[in-house]
Design brief:
It is a single chain. This protein has helices spanning about 5-15, 20-35, 55-60, 70-80, 115-130, 145-150, 205-215; strands at about 45, 65-70, 85-90, 105, 135-140, 155-160, 160-170, 175-185, 190-200, 220-225, 230-235, 240-245. It has 2 domains: about 5-145 and about 200-245, Vaccinia Virus protein VP39 (Rossmann fold, 3-Layer(aba) Sandwich), CATH 3.40.50.150; about 145-200, S-adenosyl-L-methionine-dependent methyltransferases (N-terminal domain of TfIIb, Single Sheet), CATH 2.20.25.110. An 8-stranded mixed β-sheet has the order 3-2-1-4-5-12-10-11, with helices on both faces. A 4-stranded antiparallel β-sheet has the order 6-7-8-9. The chain is of the alpha/beta class. It contains 7 helices and 12 strands. A hairpin with a 4-residue loop joins strand 7 (about 160-170) and strand 8.
Protein backbone atom coordinates (compact mmCIF):
# COMPACT_ATOMS: atom_id res chain seq x y z
CA UNK A 1 0.00 0.00 0.00
CA UNK A 2 1.67 3.25 -1.10
CA UNK A 3 2.15 6.06 1.40
CA UNK A 4 1.25 9.70 0.95
CA UNK A 5 4.70 11.10 1.72
CA UNK A 6 4.82 12.76 -1.72
CA UNK A 7 2.22 15.19 -0.44
CA UNK A 8 4.74 16.43 2.13
CA UNK A 9 6.69 18.24 -0.59
CA UNK A 10 3.52 19.77 -1.99
CA UNK A 11 2.06 20.87 1.34
CA UNK A 12 3.35 24.45 1.58
CA UNK A 13 2.33 25.27 -2.01
CA UNK A 14 -1.11 23.75 -1.44
CA UNK A 15 -1.47 25.70 1.80
CA UNK A 16 -0.59 28.98 0.10
CA UNK A 17 -2.53 28.66 -3.15
CA UNK A 18 -5.35 26.10 -2.92
CA UNK A 19 -6.74 25.25 0.50
CA UNK A 20 -8.30 28.58 1.43
CA UNK A 21 -10.14 29.12 -1.87
CA UNK A 22 -11.85 25.73 -1.89
CA UNK A 23 -12.81 26.06 1.76
CA UNK A 24 -14.77 29.20 0.91
CA UNK A 25 -16.49 27.44 -2.00
CA UNK A 26 -17.55 24.30 -0.16
CA UNK A 27 -18.70 25.78 3.17
CA UNK A 28 -22.15 26.88 1.87
CA UNK A 29 -22.71 23.36 0.52
CA UNK A 30 -21.62 21.84 3.82
CA UNK A 31 -24.00 24.16 5.65
CA UNK A 32 -26.90 23.11 3.42
CA UNK A 33 -26.33 19.35 3.50
CA UNK A 34 -24.64 18.71 6.84
CA UNK A 35 -24.10 21.49 9.36
CA UNK A 36 -27.66 22.75 9.77
CA UNK A 37 -28.72 19.25 10.78
CA UNK A 38 -26.09 18.90 13.52
CA UNK A 39 -26.35 19.97 17.15
CA UNK A 40 -24.16 22.77 18.46
CA UNK A 41 -20.60 21.70 19.25
CA UNK A 42 -21.02 18.46 17.28
CA UNK A 43 -17.96 16.27 16.79
CA UNK A 44 -16.77 16.20 13.16
CA UNK A 45 -14.00 14.16 11.53
CA UNK A 46 -12.38 15.94 8.59
CA UNK A 47 -10.97 13.02 6.59
CA UNK A 48 -7.96 13.84 4.38
CA UNK A 49 -8.05 17.30 5.95
CA UNK A 50 -4.98 18.66 4.14
CA UNK A 51 -3.73 21.92 5.58
CA UNK A 52 -6.75 22.49 7.80
CA UNK A 53 -8.64 25.42 6.28
CA UNK A 54 -11.97 23.58 6.48
CA UNK A 55 -11.18 22.50 10.03
CA UNK A 56 -10.44 26.09 11.00
CA UNK A 57 -13.75 27.31 9.59
CA UNK A 58 -15.71 24.58 11.36
CA UNK A 59 -13.97 25.25 14.67
CA UNK A 60 -14.86 28.91 14.20
CA UNK A 61 -18.50 27.81 14.03
CA UNK A 62 -18.21 26.03 17.36
CA UNK A 63 -17.74 22.42 16.22
CA UNK A 64 -15.26 19.96 17.75
CA UNK A 65 -13.07 18.97 14.83
CA UNK A 66 -10.54 16.19 14.37
CA UNK A 67 -8.49 16.23 11.17
CA UNK A 68 -6.95 13.08 9.71
CA UNK A 69 -4.42 13.02 6.88
CA UNK A 70 -1.66 10.77 5.60
CA UNK A 71 0.84 13.61 5.13
CA UNK A 72 2.74 14.78 8.21
CA UNK A 73 3.68 18.03 6.49
CA UNK A 74 0.08 18.78 5.52
CA UNK A 75 -0.82 18.36 9.19
CA UNK A 76 2.01 20.65 10.29
CA UNK A 77 0.28 23.46 8.40
CA UNK A 78 -3.13 22.29 9.66
CA UNK A 79 -1.98 22.69 13.25
CA UNK A 80 -0.84 26.23 12.45
CA UNK A 81 -4.12 27.07 10.68
CA UNK A 82 -6.37 25.48 13.31
CA UNK A 83 -4.39 25.35 16.58
CA UNK A 84 -7.36 24.25 18.68
CA UNK A 85 -8.15 21.27 16.44
CA UNK A 86 -7.01 17.71 16.99
CA UNK A 87 -4.99 16.16 14.16
CA UNK A 88 -4.07 12.55 13.47
CA UNK A 89 -1.54 11.16 10.97
CA UNK A 90 -3.21 8.11 9.42
CA UNK A 91 -4.10 6.56 6.07
CA UNK A 92 -7.77 6.85 5.06
CA UNK A 93 -7.59 3.28 3.76
CA UNK A 94 -6.58 1.76 7.09
CA UNK A 95 -7.51 4.12 9.94
CA UNK A 96 -9.47 2.83 12.92
CA UNK A 97 -11.20 5.25 15.29
CA UNK A 98 -14.06 4.73 17.76
CA UNK A 99 -17.58 5.62 16.65
CA UNK A 100 -17.60 9.00 18.34
CA UNK A 101 -18.14 11.35 15.41
CA UNK A 102 -21.51 12.90 14.71
CA UNK A 103 -20.47 13.69 11.13
CA UNK A 104 -17.57 12.85 8.80
CA UNK A 105 -16.57 14.95 5.81
CA UNK A 106 -13.93 14.73 3.08
CA UNK A 107 -13.54 17.62 0.67
CA UNK A 108 -11.61 18.97 -2.34
CA UNK A 109 -11.64 15.69 -4.30
CA UNK A 110 -9.46 14.08 -1.62
CA UNK A 111 -11.01 10.65 -2.21
CA UNK A 112 -10.11 10.76 -5.91
CA UNK A 113 -6.57 10.08 -4.65
CA UNK A 114 -7.75 6.58 -3.65
CA UNK A 115 -6.76 4.67 -6.76
CA UNK A 116 -8.91 1.52 -6.73
CA UNK A 117 -12.57 0.84 -6.05
CA UNK A 118 -11.60 -1.86 -3.55
CA UNK A 119 -9.59 0.67 -1.53
CA UNK A 120 -12.35 3.28 -1.81
CA UNK A 121 -14.80 0.74 -0.37
CA UNK A 122 -12.33 0.12 2.44
CA UNK A 123 -12.28 3.87 3.17
CA UNK A 124 -16.08 3.89 3.30
CA UNK A 125 -16.07 0.98 5.77
CA UNK A 126 -13.59 2.83 8.00
CA UNK A 127 -15.81 5.92 7.89
CA UNK A 128 -18.86 3.84 8.74
CA UNK A 129 -17.12 2.39 11.80
CA UNK A 130 -16.13 5.86 13.07
CA UNK A 131 -19.60 7.40 12.72
CA UNK A 132 -22.27 7.49 15.37
CA UNK A 133 -25.58 5.92 14.39
CA UNK A 134 -27.55 8.27 12.16
CA UNK A 135 -24.46 10.37 11.40
CA UNK A 136 -23.97 11.89 7.92
CA UNK A 137 -20.98 11.30 5.65
CA UNK A 138 -20.31 14.06 3.11
CA UNK A 139 -17.64 14.16 0.41
CA UNK A 140 -17.00 15.45 -3.09
CA UNK A 141 -15.36 13.87 -6.12
CA UNK A 142 -14.08 15.08 -9.46
CA UNK A 143 -16.20 13.48 -12.18
CA UNK A 144 -15.23 12.56 -15.73
CA UNK A 145 -16.49 15.79 -17.29
CA UNK A 146 -14.33 17.68 -14.81
CA UNK A 147 -11.26 15.71 -15.81
CA UNK A 148 -11.97 16.16 -19.51
CA UNK A 149 -12.53 19.90 -19.06
CA UNK A 150 -9.87 20.82 -16.51
CA UNK A 151 -7.20 18.12 -16.51
CA UNK A 152 -5.65 18.57 -19.94
CA UNK A 153 -3.81 21.81 -19.30
CA UNK A 154 -0.66 23.45 -18.00
CA UNK A 155 -0.43 26.39 -15.62
CA UNK A 156 2.15 28.19 -13.55
CA UNK A 157 2.45 30.30 -10.42
CA UNK A 158 5.34 32.73 -10.05
CA UNK A 159 6.17 34.74 -6.94
CA UNK A 160 9.36 36.26 -5.57
CA UNK A 161 10.41 33.22 -3.57
CA UNK A 162 8.90 30.36 -5.57
CA UNK A 163 7.73 29.18 -8.98
CA UNK A 164 5.31 26.28 -9.45
CA UNK A 165 4.72 24.76 -12.90
CA UNK A 166 1.97 22.15 -13.18
CA UNK A 167 0.98 19.81 -16.00
CA UNK A 168 -2.41 18.09 -15.88
CA UNK A 169 -3.28 14.99 -17.93
CA UNK A 170 -6.35 12.77 -18.00
CA UNK A 171 -6.20 9.24 -19.43
CA UNK A 172 -9.80 8.26 -20.27
CA UNK A 173 -9.00 4.63 -21.05
CA UNK A 174 -7.86 3.98 -17.49
CA UNK A 175 -9.92 6.81 -15.98
CA UNK A 176 -6.81 8.10 -14.22
CA UNK A 177 -5.48 11.63 -13.97
CA UNK A 178 -1.92 12.82 -13.42
CA UNK A 179 -0.79 16.01 -11.70
CA UNK A 180 2.90 16.68 -12.42
CA UNK A 181 4.42 19.61 -10.57
CA UNK A 182 7.86 21.18 -10.60
CA UNK A 183 8.50 23.62 -7.77
CA UNK A 184 11.43 26.01 -7.57
CA UNK A 185 11.81 27.70 -4.20
CA UNK A 186 14.31 30.08 -2.67
CA UNK A 187 15.99 28.71 0.44
CA UNK A 188 18.81 30.54 2.24
CA UNK A 189 19.62 32.52 -0.90
CA UNK A 190 19.74 29.51 -3.23
CA UNK A 191 17.08 28.11 -5.56
CA UNK A 192 16.01 24.53 -4.90
CA UNK A 193 13.96 22.27 -7.17
CA UNK A 194 11.37 19.67 -6.26
CA UNK A 195 9.46 17.41 -8.70
CA UNK A 196 6.46 15.29 -7.82
CA UNK A 197 3.58 13.41 -9.42
CA UNK A 198 0.16 13.03 -7.81
CA UNK A 199 -2.47 10.65 -9.20
CA UNK A 200 -6.26 10.59 -9.12
CA UNK A 201 -8.88 8.06 -10.14
CA UNK A 202 -12.17 8.94 -11.84
CA UNK A 203 -15.11 7.00 -10.43
CA UNK A 204 -18.55 6.61 -11.95
CA UNK A 205 -21.52 7.64 -9.84
CA UNK A 206 -22.86 4.09 -9.91
CA UNK A 207 -19.55 2.74 -8.60
CA UNK A 208 -19.56 5.19 -5.71
CA UNK A 209 -23.20 4.49 -4.85
CA UNK A 210 -22.55 0.74 -4.88
CA UNK A 211 -19.43 1.04 -2.70
CA UNK A 212 -21.29 3.19 -0.15
CA UNK A 213 -24.15 0.69 0.00
CA UNK A 214 -21.67 -2.19 0.41
CA UNK A 215 -20.17 -0.35 3.38
CA UNK A 216 -23.63 -0.12 4.97
CA UNK A 217 -24.66 3.48 4.22
CA UNK A 218 -28.25 4.43 3.43
CA UNK A 219 -30.07 7.50 2.06
CA UNK A 220 -27.31 7.98 -0.53
CA UNK A 221 -27.75 11.14 -2.58
CA UNK A 222 -25.54 12.87 -5.14
CA UNK A 223 -25.65 16.48 -6.34
CA UNK A 224 -23.94 18.90 -8.64
CA UNK A 225 -23.53 22.54 -7.70
CA UNK A 226 -24.24 25.65 -9.73
CA UNK A 227 -23.05 29.01 -8.39
CA UNK A 228 -26.23 30.71 -9.58
CA UNK A 229 -28.88 28.24 -8.41
CA UNK A 230 -27.08 26.09 -5.83
CA UNK A 231 -27.42 22.31 -5.55
CA UNK A 232 -28.81 20.57 -8.62
CA UNK A 233 -29.35 17.07 -9.94
CA UNK A 234 -26.11 15.26 -10.74
CA UNK A 235 -25.82 14.69 -14.50
CA UNK A 236 -23.06 13.47 -16.81
CA UNK A 237 -22.24 17.11 -17.54
CA UNK A 238 -21.30 17.82 -13.92
CA UNK A 239 -17.60 18.41 -13.27
CA UNK A 240 -17.82 17.71 -9.53
CA UNK A 241 -20.21 15.60 -7.47
CA UNK A 242 -21.23 16.09 -3.84
CA UNK A 243 -22.31 12.91 -2.04
CA UNK A 244 -24.25 12.73 1.20
CA UNK A 245 -25.36 9.55 2.99
CA UNK A 246 -25.79 8.37 6.56
CA UNK A 247 -25.16 5.47 8.88
CA UNK A 248 -28.40 3.75 9.92
Amino acid sequence: MPSYSDYDRFAWVYNKHWGKDFAQQVLPILENLVLRHLPAKASILDLCCGTGQIARALIGCGYQVTGLDGSKEMLRFARENAPTGKFIVADARSFKLPDVYQAIISTFDSLNHIMTLEELTRVFRNVYAALQQGGPFFFDLNMEEGYKTCWNDNFGIAEEDHVCVTRLNYHPGERTAQFDTTIFYLQEGEWQRSDLTLLQKCYLEAEVQSALAAAGFIDIRAYAYDEQIGLTELTKEAERAFFICRKP
